[in-house]
Amino acid sequence: MTDSPLQFELHTTDGRARRGKVTVPHGSFNTPAFMPVGTRATVKGLMPRDLRETGSEICLSNTYHLNISPGPKIVKKMGGLHHFMGWDAPILTDSGGYQVFSLPKAKLDEEGVTFKFEQKGGKKITLTPEKSMQIQEDLGADIIMAFDVCVPHPCEYQDAREAVYRTIRWLERCKEAHSRKDQALFGIIQGSTYADLRALSTQLTREIDLPGYAIGGLSVGEGHELMMSSIDQTEPGMIKEKPRYLMGVGYPEDIVEAVARGIDMFDCVIPSRYARSGVAFTRRGRFRVTNARYRSDKFPLDTNCNCYCCRNFSRAYLNHLINTNEILGSALMTLHNVTFYQDMMRAIRMAIEEGSFEKFRQAFLDEYLSDDKKEELGFDDLDGRYDQEDFGWDVKHSVVPPTDIAENLEKTEPVDEVAGPRRRIEKIKNLGDD
């Protein structure tokens, strides 16, 4: 380590896709990386050793929620977030800005955001850039996020423009207030879906020297096409030698497409939140195990998965657990989903290393998305088929015979069957809870 709290090694590129490694005081993680969200210092249903077993090398916690309980001073007194939650690997904390801006009666001015802390008797609190930095310093994560202005979608141009400039002013205040030398502060690029504002925000943000930068303000209902065009408008102006973090984006197809556009880091509540409602992610799409057709299904969630859940339990058992609200059901489903995401990220990294990412991208999307979804998202020209051995999805760990796998392939429902029309996770509903 040098004097910087974060080191980024860019190992190789394949097109715009990047393969690298980030090193911080509590360890390293490979990129592209997916960070499971542990809102309240835990990924719901998983012990730290479970999270490690999924292949996760870094996780995220939420400043807003930890400020409510147990409070940053208690976390600091207990030795910091790593010691408090028993996680000896890298941690990133967000600034709390998104959650605060999601509150119905939040008041914004140049000083910060004032809102009622309903959990503390309706007491009025103002969260400022300086306060966000102090909370995050007390929590002690390796990577902390600047306090930014989050605008909804759709958003008027003038509002988005003002948010860009205020976010920059707040970023300067964050940098001035940030005093811990063992934490890496990331700035956040805003601009809604306006191309000129994205370019402006990128330029202004990169002028403030920081260890890394994030793209914010996406995955708020703009849809896949606008999300990708916004990344295309932002990424070319980002510094090549520093990590790039796309905040809150977590559908597999969005991650793969964002990697193709040069993004290094991702986080989202999707794998854990979907797990609790019985939705499993697999290489062939996602499906809801609570459906009646799985009541007597002997197969694991995913015949190509080597997680503890898939090695030991059937869809029938998981159908029973989730439908009877047993805690174990949510835990096993979460373990599987997070493992799927980490397996996907490992396969992505391998493809970039081998110079075959474009082949991987087309094959993965062709296998993962239904025909209707391909057409909806503009992927209807895919013609590749997935070669399991090419990209680390080898079936050698399967817990059932190959003949049974072949017979069972058609049992997996298409992605469309899970949740109807495509929509973004309603983050406001639970203020970003995982």
From TrEMBL:
tRNA-guanine(15) transglycosylase-like domain location: 16-368
SUPFAM superfamilies, per database record: tRNA-guanine transglycosylase
UniProt binding sites for substrate: 94-98, 148, 190, 217
Keywords: Glycosyltransferase, Metal-binding, Queuosine biosynthesis, Transferase, tRNA processing, Zinc
Pathway: tRNA modification; tRNA-queuosine biosynthesis
One Pfam match: TGT
Stored InterPro entries: ArchSynthase1/Queuine_TRR, TGT, TGT-like_sf, tRNA_ribo_trans-like
GO molecular function, one term: tRNA-guanosine(34) queuine transglycosylase activity
Gene Ontology annotations for the cellular component aspect, listed alphabetically: cytosol
EC number, UniProt record: 2.4.2.29
Binding note for cofactor: Binds 1 zinc ion per subunit.
Region (RNA binding): 248-254
Cofactors, names only: Zn(2+)
GO biological process, one term: tRNA queuosine(34) biosynthetic process
Enzyme class: transferase
Amino acids binding Zn(2+): 305, 307, 310, 336
Cited Gene3D superfamilies: Queuine tRNA-ribosyltransferase-like
Domain of life: Bacteria
Residue positions of the active site: 94, 267
Catalyses which reaction(s): 7-aminomethyl-7-carbaguanine + guanosine(34) in tRNA = 7-aminomethyl-7-carbaguanosine(34) in tRNA + guanine
Function description: Catalyzes the base-exchange of a guanine (G) residue with the queuine precursor 7-aminomethyl-7-deazaguanine (PreQ1) at position 34 (anticodon wobble position) in tRNAs with GU(N) anticodons (tRNA-Asp, -Asn, -His and -Tyr). Catalysis occurs through a double-displacement mechanism. The nucleophile active site attacks the C1' of nucleotide 34 to detach the guanine base from the RNA, forming a covalent enzyme-RNA intermediate. The proton acceptor active site deprotonates the incoming PreQ1, allowing a nucleophilic attack on the C1' of the ribose to form the product.
Family: Belongs to the queuine tRNA-ribosyltransferase family.
Subunit record text: Homodimer. Within each dimer, one monomer is responsible for RNA recognition and catalysis, while the other monomer binds to the replacement base PreQ1.
Name this protein carries in UniProt: Queuine tRNA-ribosyltransferase
Species in which this protein is naturally found: Persicimonas caeni
Gene: tgt
